[in-house]
Amino acid sequence: MAGLLCGTKKKKQVSDLHEEGKNAINAPLLPSSAELLPEDLLLEENAERSMLDPTSREDPKFKDLQKVLIDWINNELEEDRIIVKDLEEDLYDGQVLQKLFEKLSGRKLNVAEVTQSEIGQKQKLQTVLEAVNELLRPQGWTIEWGVDSIHSKNLVAIVYLLVALAMHYMAPIRLPEHVSVHVVVVKKKEGILQTAQVTKELTTTTEMMMGRFERDAFDTLLDHAPDKLNVVKTSLITFVNKHLNKLNLEVTELESQFADGVYLVLLMGLLEDYFVPLYNFYLTPESFEQKVHNVAFAFELMQDGGLKKPKARPEDVVNLNLKSTLRVLYNLFTNYKSAD
């Protein structure tokens, strides 16, 4: 009798599971590209789960945003010898997020360094996210992430968190504009799975995102006093030529002549009074990657000289972004204007 009852119960569970699956399949709002997973069918009443639409996962702008964030994390945590390759797989346990927040904030969190168990990982995430939320919530951020979403490798939640941190700490990166993704939300109500597609906006325009930052002199200059731009460019050209003329080099166009990084590297050597070995950079760069290498190397020399890391990305200078090039050169001008 006990065996019969057990068998009947199992059949009913299978039948219920099949019925829920059928309801989900017939749900009109479920995008055809999204697939329900077993854990969706076993949701508790009124519980919900979200998943990234596969078409959004392959969106080039979304992939570019992930790459920018990965490069930023790896650059920040270079001294810790941490290398992130995949946001979902490398950030879910809280270890990298802990190190990143400690580096950005200058705070040491009271958490175990290495945690293998799920409970330990979630406890670490709880501590890290509490510290992050205390920092960001007063600034008007909507908290779009949580312990469960991060630990379950919810890529949208992870990206939301990283974008917020990058913007708050004025990371020297350029986030791709207008990146949105479609998320499928599955919810169980009265035993029936209901689905809906929601659009999540991850980034807006550079101007709006920069609005959270303190705008610098060049933002104001380009927006409100473009007539004075030539005066600034003339001053910077005079400054760089004062030093580059020692190598019989001359600059007439700031954005184009510094775009390959060669003059930036040579200028740093002149300002700091040392010879830069030619094997450290490309004297006649041909590819985009070689130019980015040169500009990035020049940025390293600036930091070695005691300057703050430039806000601009090397890619922006290579892409002839005038504002980025002006920021870099003005930083040199303010620090070396009295140099012979």
UniProtKB/TrEMBL annotation:
<keyword id="KW-0206">Cytoskeleton</keyword>
<dbReference type="GO" id="GO:0071963">
    <property type="term" value="P:establishment or maintenance of cell polarity regulating cell shape"/>
</dbReference>
<feature type="domain" description="Calponin-homology (CH)">
    <location>
        <begin position="63"/>
        <end position="170"/>
    </location>
</feature>
<comment type="similarity">
    <text>Belongs to the parvin family.</text>
</comment>
<dbReference type="GO" id="GO:0030018">
    <property type="term" value="C:Z disc"/>
</dbReference>
<dbReference type="InterPro" id="IPR028433">
    <property type="entry name" value="Parvin"/>
</dbReference>
<dbReference type="GO" id="GO:0030027">
    <property type="term" value="C:lamellipodium"/>
</dbReference>
<dbReference type="GO" id="GO:0030036">
    <property type="term" value="P:actin cytoskeleton organization"/>
</dbReference>
<dbReference type="GO" id="GO:0030032">
    <property type="term" value="P:lamellipodium assembly"/>
</dbReference>
<dbReference type="GO" id="GO:0005925">
    <property type="term" value="C:focal adhesion"/>
</dbReference>
<protein>
    <recommendedName>
        <fullName>Calponin-homology (CH) domain-containing protein</fullName>
    </recommendedName>
</protein>
<dbReference type="GO" id="GO:0015629">
    <property type="term" value="C:actin cytoskeleton"/>
</dbReference>
<keyword id="KW-0963">Cytoplasm</keyword>
<keyword id="KW-0677">Repeat</keyword>
<feature type="domain" description="Calponin-homology (CH)">
    <location>
        <begin position="230"/>
        <end position="337"/>
    </location>
</feature>
<keyword id="KW-0009">Actin-binding</keyword>
<dbReference type="InterPro" id="IPR036872">
    <property type="entry name" value="CH_dom_sf"/>
</dbReference>
<dbReference type="GO" id="GO:0003779">
    <property type="term" value="F:actin binding"/>
</dbReference>
<dbReference type="InterPro" id="IPR001715">
    <property type="entry name" value="CH_dom"/>
</dbReference>
<dbReference type="Pfam" id="PF00307">
    <property type="entry name" value="CH"/>
</dbReference>
<dbReference type="GO" id="GO:0034446">
    <property type="term" value="P:substrate adhesion-dependent cell spreading"/>
</dbReference>
<keyword id="KW-0130">Cell adhesion</keyword>
